[in-house]
Amino acid sequence: MNGKNDADEPVDKDRRNFFKFLGVAAIAAGGIGALRGVLENVSPPITSAFSSFPTLLLYSQAGKPIGTSDLKVNNSTIVLFDYPLQNEPNFLLRLGDSSNNDQAIDPTTVTIPATGKTFKSSGGVGPYKSVVASSAICQHLGCIPPIIHFYPPSSSSYPGKVHCNCHGSTYDPYKGFAVVTGPTTHPLPNTVLAYDSSKDQYSVTSLVGPTIYGHSSDLSGGSLLPSSTYTEITTLTPTS
Ligand code: FES
Questions:
Q1: What is the three-class DSSP state of 10?
Q2: Cα first-last separation, the chain
Q3: What is the dihedral of CA 180, 133, 112, 207, to 10 degrees?
Q4: What digits encode the pLDDT tens for the residues 24-55?
Q5: Per-residue pLDDT tens digits for 86-108
Q6: How far is the CA of 108 from the centre of ligand 1 (A)?
């Protein structure tokens, strides 16, 4: 991904600016006692960049790790989690066939129509290899759920596809969230999951593919998540 090197610089810059501010504040306040007051009332700037992707456990809002039975096959309810930063929603899908049986999702090579470049989509995880994830921010102009969402295979419109009702972009979650119809020219960034079969737990480990829409890097340009160990699932009802 292109974010790693870009992400290092803002952290150091923020830190330098923060200590510069403290120095000026101490002089202006006239002593160590006053500086203590400044330290008690001013928090360091929130660093908004990682040097690498965090690994986060997927949690329910009840505060428990998500297990396979928590995920419904071909769920028409939108299941989301933020990653790698706040307000960056990702789809969590347990994909099935038209009879709602789990469907194993094979690794595949995905083409980015805008550039002709490709990336490797790692396929599904979980006991049936059917659980996949991607950025839920449309790569055309950034529309977010519920206006962009997954249509189950039984749906009469866009069966088995992720479709964005803003301008009609369609993606194939069974094929690495590849572009099916424009106007988007970029697939959805694939969110890489890991599955711990001994505990039946799911983690998110990184992103592959194009950069999240609207960001120069996946690892900077937003606020850090509240926890460095887990990210919470939320649900939304789709728009038609
Ligand atoms: S923002 Fe999704 S199709 Fe335009």
A1: helix
A2: 34
A3: 170
A4: 333 333 333 333 333 333 333 344 566 789 99
A5: 999 999 999 999 999 999 999 99
A6: 24
- Which one-letter amino acid corresponds to residue 45? P
- Give the tokens for residue 234: 């939320």
Our CA dihedral for 168, 86, 178, 71, rounded to 10 degrees, sits at -100
**To which residue do tokens 């360091």 refer?**
44
How far apart (Å, rounded) are the C-alpha atoms in residues 50 and 106?
30
| Measured distance CA(81)–CA(52) in Å, rounded | 19
* Joined tokens for residue 132: 């996949």
164 in contact with ligand 1, CB cutoff 6 A = yes
> 208 in ligand 1 pocket by Cβ < 6 Å?
no
112 CB less than 6 Å from ligand 1?
Answer: no
